[in-house]
Design goal:
Elements: E1 9-14, H1 15-28, E2 33-39, H2 42-47, E3 53-55, H3 70-79, H4 81-88, E4 93-99, H5 103-118, E5 122-129, H6 137-150, E6 153-158, H7 159-164, H8 172-194, H9 204-211, E7 216-226, H10 230-239, H11 248-252, E8 255-262, H12 268-281, E9 286-293, E10 300-311, E11 365-366, E12 369-370, H13 375-378
Parallel strand pairs: 1-2, 1-4, 2-3, 4-5, 5-6, 6-7, 8-9
Antiparallel strand pairs: 7-10, 8-10, 11-12
């Protein structure tokens, strides 16, 4: 028996955006995953179709949302820490879905990631970043940074990138649906990645070694094509994905986790052709590949690509250098004749010093002058 058939995957929606998206994934039915909904907004929880839920902030929020306050979101999750830990107990992979522009998602998701990590799970967080017009970019960036410090990897999903691919005439519902669609595809791809019923399964132990403690960002895209020349078309779709910056990230990456899926007619030749094209594009990358057959694909062929980026470096505080004592030196006046420069030297007090054992000796006289007395004293010279 394949031990990965017992792999426990828990998908956790945190806040309004996370609940809404997870609800749609759960409705599609993924046997390899179970779902958990977390929010302080009781109305959002009641509308959610996910059976397993935790009402947060029952005392301080009293059924209301967090009103964009990340601190409140974090406090609500901390107060329910033990209940959440019990729900996540035994999970091998925890996938957190949250919007970074809200109080519960931006503030609560990092605490959920911390709880899941302490329970021994591999933690992947999908951070949904708001449209620019929402005005929460700075807040979202701070939330992503906090999340990156505790999750094993964070997949940034910027809605703005998706909107820019829709064209100027796209309606609000079309843009929202396109953005949500990319997140849903990513969640479905992760769920498939964890399944052990493929023709060629991804070694989860390998994925775990690669990602655990990584604390960096990753790109995750899911694409699907149909028609002729599917392998090449699939790679082109990956390169054009709005989350991959015109494919530059793929060309420069050092590791790839790929789950390939197709109908029963997907040939080994097609799989080999796709892998060949992929390796030629991402020449530096080490590839972990899984292949699944799903007749629901029709005549389509799809791929999920999880690509770790460079890990986030911990920025240490700059050590304070000891202060160098400042010596005040007189500044010479430049571009003036030497005779006009105001040089002043203090006259030091001259104290007669004993000659020691020669004190009683005869003076050393020459032309009536004692040569043991310095010249400037003998001749009454003033040193300025």
């Amino acid at each position: 028996m394949n031990p990965e058939s017992n792999l426990c995957v828990k998908m956790v929606g945190v806040g309004c955006a996370g609940l809404r998206l997870l609800d749609r994934v759960a409705a599609a039915g993924f046997p390899a995953s179970s779902f958990l909904a977390l929010d302080s907004d009781c109305e959002q929880l009641q509308r959610c179709q996910i059976a397993e839920r935790v009402q947060l902030g029952e005392t301080n929020r009293r059924g209301w949302g967090c009103s964009g306050d990340e601190g409140e979101g974090a406090n609500c999750v901390r107060a329910a820490r033990d209940r959440i830990a019990d729900k996540l107990m035994g999970a091998d992979l925890v996938v957190i879905v949250a919007g970074m522009g809200g109080g519960m998602g931006g503030g609560g998701a990092p605490v959920v990631a911390e709880i899941a990590s302490e329970g021994g799970a591999l933690v992947v967080a999908l951070a949904i970043e708001p449209f620019d017009l929402e005005g929460h970019n700075e807040t979202a960036q701070i939330a992503v940074n906090r999340l990156t410090q505790v999750a094993d990897t964070v997949v940034r999903m910027p809605n703005q990138n998706v909107m820019e691919t829709q064209g100027k005439g796209a309606s609000v519902p079309e843009c929202m649906e396109a953005a949500n669609g990319h997140v849903l595809e990513a969640l479905m791809g992760l769920s498939r990645l964890a399944r052990a019923d493929g023709e060629l399964n991804v070694d989860f132990a390998h994925v775990r070694r690669l990602m655990t403690g990584y604390h960096g960002e990753s790109s995750l895209v899911t694409v699907e094509v149909a028609g002729d020349a599917r392998p090449r078309a699939l790679l082109e779709a990956i390169l054009k994905h709005p989350y991959l910056n015109t494919g530059s990230e793929l060309r420069n990456c050092e590791g790839l986790i790929v789950s390939l899926v197709g109908d029963e007619y997907m040939s080994m030749e097609e799989v080999n052709e796709f892998v060949t094209h992929l390796k030629a594009t991402a020449a530096r990358a080490k590839l972990i590949l899984g292949v699944h057959v799903d007749n629901a694909m029709g005549k389509g062929m799809g791929a999920m690509v999880l690509m770790p980026r460079m890990p986030v470096k911990t920025v240490l505080p700059v050590a304070q250098k000891p202060e160098t004592p400042q010596i005040s030196m007189p500044k010479p006046v430049r571009n003036q004749p030497a005779s006009t420069r105001d040089f002043q030297q203090q006259q030091l007090p001259l104290v007669p010093i004993s000659k020691g054992r020669f004190d009683k000796g005869e003076p050393n006289l020459h032309d009536g002058e004692d040569l043991d007395v310095p010249t400037f004293l003998r001749r009454n010279m003033i040193l300025n």
